[in-house]
Amino acid sequence: MLDKAKTRLLGAVLVLASPLLAAEASAERISGREALAVMRAMDLSPELGTDSHGDPQIEFMIEGLHARLNFYDCKKQDGRCGSLQLETALDLEDGTSLRAANEFNQKYRYVRLYLDHEMDPYLQFDFEVLHTDAKSHLESQIELYGKLLRDFKDAMGYY
Question: Is 73 left (phi over 0), alpha (psi -120 to 50) or beta?
Fold first, then answer.
């Protein structure tokens, strides 16, 4: 059993640690509104909506392309999500080849190029915001995605 002094010490430690734990917990996930604010500050013309599951979804412009930010691993009680996906597609007149898609996928590790039924390419980039400052991490991932989109457009001959 804990004596009175140890109980008080444990209580003091918990009181001091609780704001730190609360701050860490809030930094581990991001809501649609928080992501919208980050994207507005980046001048991406974001529009917040919801997907078919009721999770946040943001449509925006980047590198001259329409794109979407999809939210996954969302907690219903607070609307904060732990996984995000950036997604963009190109509508090419004649589509692209499996070879071009495979070459792109071999070159890049964290992004995947897929082909639709018309052989038009679309790109998906997944990342988590757990155990980090979610807002700063989102900004850095969008900046990285912009660089990947430039390479994507070059590889697909989209100018």
Answer: left
